[in-house]
Design a protein that fits this description.
Number of strands: 8
CATH class of the largest domain: Mainly Alpha
Structural class: alpha+beta
Largest sheet: 5 strands, mixed, barrel
CATH topology of the largest domain: de novo design (two linked rop proteins)
Protein name: DNA repair protein RecO
Strand order of the largest sheet: 1-2-3-5-4
CATH architecture of the largest domain: Up-down Bundle
Family: Belongs to the RecO family.
Keywords: DNA damage, DNA recombination, DNA repair
Organism: freshwater metagenome
Order of helices and strands: EEEEEHHHEEEHH
Radius of gyration: 20 Å
Length: about 240
């Protein structure tokens, strides 16, 4: 319905448009992912200043017209997450987290728990930039898949339910598989399995550390699960 819209939002992406405008992709708790144009925001006297940049948490005022593109009419900063912007690793993790969320939840459906997850991730990276890294992003993506309803099955074989002899990961089956069901899977060792289980079950602040091999296997499991069960193409971590 056309008219004014007030919502809290996190800026996922901000792109230059025309001579002075920006197109924003934002994520909101009750309207999901939205797109909006901020007119004249790149002019030096713009009332919005720099608060429409990625990762800003805002109270937004929008006008909803007939098109899918809303118009930004007001913005108040809730949190700028300024500290993470001064740390390259934290900044990279924030950018990849926002990109992943925008791909998995690319609709206007309400998911307040996903909005809270994103705010929590940005807050952690702001307060503890050292948490930034590939392990953090894998853990964040696993929690996104859980919220979307297609987190990988890690407790038992996704094909037959067997709890022992888990030797591989099958994106088609949706999780780890045993020796009897491993056809079409790729090898997933105990160390990677433990890392994924801990990353999915622990708070982001307690994301376990892992070496590059484990992270690569875990990321493959996540990205191929997202592609097979959510038709979502996530970018490789590195």
């Amino acid at each position: 319905m056309a008219g004014p819209v007030k919502t809290e939002a996190v800026v996922l992406r901000s792109m230059r448009y025309g001579e002075a405008d920006r197109i924003l992709h934002v994520y909101t708790p009750m309207r999901g992912k939205l797109s909006a144009i901020a007119k004249g925001v790149r002019r030096s006297r713009s009332r919005f200043g720099g608060r429409l940049e990625p990762f800003f948490r805002l109270n937004l005022e929008l006008h909803e017209g007939r098109s899918d593109l809303m118009t930004v009419t007001g913005a108040e900063t809730v949190s700028a997450f300024a500290e993470l912007r001064s740390d390259e690793r934290a900044l990279t993790s924030a950018a990849k987290a926002c990109d992943s969320l925008g791909r998995v939840f690319d609709s206007g459906e309400p998911h307040p728990e996903v909005f809270n997850l994103l705010c929590s991730a940005l807050g952690l990276l702001d307060e503890h930039p050292e948490l930034g890294g590939d392990e953090f992003l894998v853990a964040f993506r696993l929690k996104l898949l859980l919220a979307a309803g297609f987190a990988p099955q890690l407790a038992a074989c996704a094909s037959c339910g067997e709890g022992d002899g888990l030797v591989g990961f099958s994106p088609a089956a949706g999780g780890v598989v045993c020796t009897s069901c491993e056809a079409g899977s790729f090898e997933l060792d105990d160390q990677t399995h433990r890392f994924m289980t801990a990353a999915l079950g622990s708070p982001l602040s307690a994301t376990p550390r892992a070496d590059a091999r484990v992270i690569g296997l875990a990321d493959r499991a996540v990205t191929e699960t997202a592609a097979h069960h959510g038709q979502v193409r996530l970018k490789a971590i590195s």
